[in-house]
Amino acid sequence: MIDIPELALVALVGISGSGKSTFARTHFRPTQVLSSDFFRGLVADDENDQSASAEAFDALHYIAGKRLAAGRLTVVDATNLQPHGRAELVRVAKEHDVLPVAIVLDVPEALAWERTQARPDRTFDRRVLNRMHRDLRHSLGSLAREGFRKVHVLRGPDEIAAASIRYEKLFNDKRELTGPFDIIGDVHGCRAELETLLERLGYALTRDAAGRPVTAAHPEGRTAVFVGDLVDRGPDSPGVLRLVMGMVADGAALCVPGNHEQKLARKLNGRKVQLTHGLPETLEQLSAEPDEFVAEAKTFIEGLVSHYVLDGGQLVVAHAGLKEAYQGRASGRVRSFALYGETTGETDEYGLPVRYPWARDYRGSAAVVYGHTPIPKPEWINNTICLDTGCVFGGALTALRWPSRELVSVPAEKEHYAPVRPLVAPGRPDEGLDITDVTGRRHLDYGYGRATIAAENAAAALEVMSRFALDPATLVWLPPTMAPCSTSELDGYLEHPATAFADMRAAGVEKVVCEEKHMGSRAVVRVSRDGEGDAIWTRTGRPFFGPELDEPLLARVRAAAAGLFDELGRDWLLIDAELLPWSAKAAGLIRERYAGVGAAGRAALPAALDVVAGTAARGLDVTALRERLELRSAEIDGYSAAYRAYVKPTDGLTGVTLAPFAVLAGDGVTYASRDHGWHLSLADRLVAADPELFTPTRRVVVDLADPASEAEATEWWLTLTAAGGEGMVVKPWSGLTVTEAKGRLVQPGVKCRGREYLRIIYGPEYTRPEQLARLRRRNLGRKRNLALREHGLGLAALDRLAAGEPLWRVHELVFAILASESEPVDPRL
Amino acid sequence: MLLTVTTTHRPASDLGYLLVKHPDKVHTFDVPTGTAYVMYPEVSDERCTAALMLDVDPQRLRAQRDAFELSQFVNDRPYAASSLLAGALSKVFRSALRGASKDRPELAATPLPLEIRVPVLRGTAELATRLFAPLGWEVEATEIPFEPEIGGDSRYVDLVLRGSLTLSAALNHLYVLLPVLDDAKHYWVAPDEIEKLLRSGQGWLAGHPDKVLIARRYLAHKRALTTTALQSLEGEEAEEPPAEEEAELPVVRRQSLAEQRRDAVLAALTEVGATRVLDLGCGGGALLGALMKDRRYTEVVGTDVSSRALEIAARKLRLDRLPERQRGRLKLWQSALTYRDDRLRGYDAAVLMEVIEHLDVPRLPALEASVFGHARPGAVVVTTPNAEYNVHYEGLTGMRHSDHRFEWTRAEFQDWASRTAQTYGYNVTFRTVGELDETTGSPTQLALFTLVASEVTA
Questions:
Q1: What family is reported (chain B) (predicted)?
Q2: What is the pLDDT of residues B163-215, one digit of tens each?
Q3: Candidates B49, B143, B150, partner chain A, best to mutate (most A CBs within 10 A)
Q4: Cβ contact (<8 Å) for A604 and B79?
């Protein structure tokens, strides 16, 4: 029986013909085995070309590294008879913090020679085999010294044939334990506070004859997990040890070691350590304890495992935290990181080592709970949380309940020990975004679907995001693009309500709301009770007008939303709206692009008609040309009227209004699944609160099973667009998260734009039958896919925000929406 | 789009002979961009008007994959005079352009009283006058207003030219100057355009005070073509034409300031003994070139948030032609200063030359954290405009560049720099760059940050 760790680098050691490949085939999956012969073949087309060995091993080590980084058992099938070759394997294993294991296949040289001769591709001399055998003899004694943590020697063909592999779990692998847990921060000898906290958490304490707590248990079977630093500085380190040791012995608690336990154990082992940082107090307290207790404590500490991976891998507990690459691994540096964290090599003004902010870089999926660094208030940073709230320094003793993530704290009874440096001042933790969170080709699985963001689109978005957009911490959502309804075949129409309703019906939607489509600029508004962090941004995440106008605008929205904060019980709300008129934000665009064409057309066509009239007066026939010019003239007038409808005088904020149509989210909640009746009723409340600032959104609710209801809505649309309205958006009544039968999201809305409005999109003359015929061939597929993808990304961003996920998790989605906008799609759709 | 030519020469109807288009017919021509018409709305002995009208077919225009307004599906091409009309003119009035006339050879060579109208032309009245007046035209250019709801004038003019010129000269002026005013071409401008320009410009372009502008715009702003054309015009080596819209600031002063700034940055880098340096926000690579020339810099990294800027830098530095060893010294990476970037760690120095003012003030803490906190080079050189100095720029209102989000006074800059240095453990010193004025200081201000050596623990 050969015991090897579940994750290890296994080196097979044996001379040619010892049966390594057969052994590997018997006990491991083919993909787990990296054979030097195979790699020689890969790089040199010849498995026996010894001159290719260096390149072959280079490639083999590279692949081994990739496998180990991904946590996969790897077996190296090579002779591994030379110390320098084995040293490389040990290096690769250490680099990935896995244990190197050697399995030696020791067969008589004669047997190996017999096997070798039987193979036609092996043509070497027996002297070579003899040399190998000598090397093997030399190797046997040195393997353990070279760094192989386990060496198994199988002697003779019978032992080899009889061997079987048994996998051992690492000590830190407690994935099978699912708790629920109560993870407790640094206690530092504060026994009284620990008793209070355990009782608060519902544990029943058991006391000895002297009244000292010796163990505790939770009636519901919860498990306490101590993050270490039980001892030093505080008034009763032995008392804490006694209680925790009892709980661990009873299976009511797990405990990882802290650096203070580590140092105490060294001292108890007679090593020379500096008597600082509260160790003298502990030693003095222990001197009052019987020797057996001290011995027990030493054994307990020495038996502690540096970190635990719990609850199916979702939870990691380590004293100073643990980066993702080290989780579930075992090595000196893993233990060192778990105990001390990572330091930058610098010291701060108090002479204490500066710690590298590993949590800021953490991108792992497991929550990491740790202590070690006293902080005023525990806060989640990138799925990690520090529970050391400095109880011994007069702070509090804190526990995290898992999986509910609830925090429970009891205040310190007093300042037991003066802090060396003040606890860091509270403030928003630096969650910092990394360039690799957003750039390059990225695959996102966001729950509502999967998306691949092309590197060049990310590059384009990076420029916008970095140079023009708001702070990512503010920019928690961007509006998705919207697809138009399927193309209408009705005479004179490119878009018509009939196809919009048909689209929704086809998606299985039974009831829709038709909302007036405001022609202005999309605006996302975040307002809060206290005004902190409020912002209004455009569809590309830019501030709207600049602070001098945005601030007073936000103040008015805030005032109008006061009632909503109370009603919904939220401190902030995210509102989706359109800012009107179009000219308020787009005046330059209107002049440059639209009104310029209008002015040129309205000047050119009458001049041309004059020439034609003069020519006609001279008796020449120019009727056809005149008619064409007259039609053009009418078309340019229609076009001019279309854009003119969205131009209104504004002066500063005077004349500017907002038309809200959805309340997307608030602190800790997303409202995406509320129906549009709910959203519009809140919008109406804002309009009622400040009718001057807010414009109502007109709407019609349609039962798609009722032709009369549809007809009524169509009539409504015709009237609306005839009066210069842009058109309408048809949305599933039930909200933003409606899915079709297969579970795929339904378009959150399709736009149905008015006949006259479309002149400014498709050109003044688009209504001519031949032009319409050509335009009807427009392809909506790309636009629809893009609209759905951006919608899903936005929903996921709101979900992650509500769940309190790290900033980078929200930002990668918001960034992906912006990057998606660089997809080449017909801009007229 | 339309132009009309009127003469009061007697008999005015001779215009028909010169144009080789009978006044009593409506002439139709198929041209690549639509249909051209020639017709005469007025014909008498005293006064005769010929009109050239181009009915543009937007479909055909689009099918040509023309150079302008591709992304725009709504455009002014059917209405405004442009290279489309000039093209039609050269096709329809070919012999008149050449000054040839079978029937009235003398008349073709005689200056005639002419009135030319182009009712819609992109451009300003001022530019139209500058271009046509030196050629002997009396220019009446009226800016076409927007509708009252929009207010103000559009960028189109109604142009009337009066003068006594040969018809050929008049048509050649229009052929060249209509596209120049419009400042766009509907086709790819190849070297043979130079010849067209020189042929049509014969006798007037060489002496035109705005010949540089005309050549540049006619040749679609292609520098090489423009230079060649101007050389031919002068028969000697012409200077490189300066870029037309360089900046708001006087050219001479600006360039020298850029050089001074670069030298000041290089001096600061020398002072701190840096050999591996980051140029953060390198743009088109102005500083990178200087760094690459100096062999003491063993590794030069240019970063910019714009991949386009990096492409320009790569081209300017001739990256693909550098020998391997030289190429190995230089890296160009897209990066954003508001995100941490591990690639930027461990360098001797970082330069932020005229970069911070392009970031909104609320985003500066992110830049500070990524540069000073994360990349953490041994030294950081920051330059930025000194707002106090702006009073010396005549006619400058607001800031020096349209993308500047702020320009700081010396006190503001020093306050920011000192706070940043304090937070991230740097020392900072300040220096001036450029001409020093007693009250306002220098045009550019520079801060040199150096990392405070900290005790390294074992």
A1: Belongs to the methyltransferase superfamily. HEN1 family.
A2: 999 999 999 999 999 999 988 777 777 788 888 899 999 889 988 999 899 99
A3: B150
A4: yes
Span of A8-12, A485-489, B110-114, B449-453 with lowest mean pLDDT: B449-453
Alpha carbon distance A405, B350 (integer Å): 42
pLDDT reported for residue A361: 82
Asked if pLDDT for residue A326 goes beyond 90, the answer is yes
Domain boundary among B165, B188, B211: B188
Here the CATH number for the domain that contains residue B301 is 3.40.50.150
The count of domains in chain B is 2
Compute the distance between CA of residue A106 and CA of residue A154 in angstroms, rounded to an integer.
Answer: 6
Do A764 and B24 count as a contact with CB atoms less than 8 A apart?
A: no
Give tens-digit pLDDT for B249-302.
444 444 478 889 999 999 999 999 999 999 999 988 889 999 999 999 999 999
ipTM for this model: 0.82
Where among B170, B188, B206 does a domain terminate?
B188
Is A463–B307 a contact, with Cβ atoms under 8 angstroms apart? yes
Query: What's the domain range around B422?
Result: 251-451
Burial zone of A397 (CB within 10 Å; 0-12 exposed, 13-18 middle, 19+ buried):
buried
Residue B456 tokens read as: 């390294």
Q: Which is it for the CA torsion B4, B6, B12, B15, positive or negative? A: negative
- DSSP labels, B81-97: BSHHHHHHHHHHTHHHH
Residue B245's pLDDT is 44
DSSP A183-248: EE---TT-HHHHHHHHHHTTPEEEE-TTS-EEEEE-TT--EEEE-S--SSSSS-HHHHHHHHHHHH
Query: Is some CB atom of chain B closer than 8 A to the CB atom of A533?
Result: no
Q: How far is B403 from chain A (nearest CA, A)?
A: 10
**In the structure encoding, which two tokens stand for residue A594, read together?**
């639209």
Does B194 map to a domain?
A: no
- pLDDT band, very low/low/confident/very high, at B236 (cuts 50, 70, 90): very low
Q: Is B75 on the interface with A (CB under 8 A)?
A: yes
Cβ–Cβ under 8 Å, residues A512 and A501? yes
Q: What is the pLDDT of residue A359?
A: 86
In a domain, B149, yes or no: yes
Distance CA B7, CA B113 (A): 6
Rounded alpha-carbon distances, angstroms, from residue A622 to A626, B47, B73, B81: 6, 21, 29, 22
Strand partners of residue B29: B36
- The answer to whether residues A264 and A231 touch, using CB atoms and an 8 Å cutoff, is yes
How far does B237 lie from chain A, in Å, by closest CA? 40
- B159 and B17 assigned to the same domain: yes
Q: Which amino acid is at A333?
A: R
Alpha-carbon gap, residue A705 to A692, rounded angstroms: 38
Side chain identity at A3, as an amino acid letter?
A: D
| Tens-digit pLDDT profile for residues B11-24 | 999 999 999 999 99
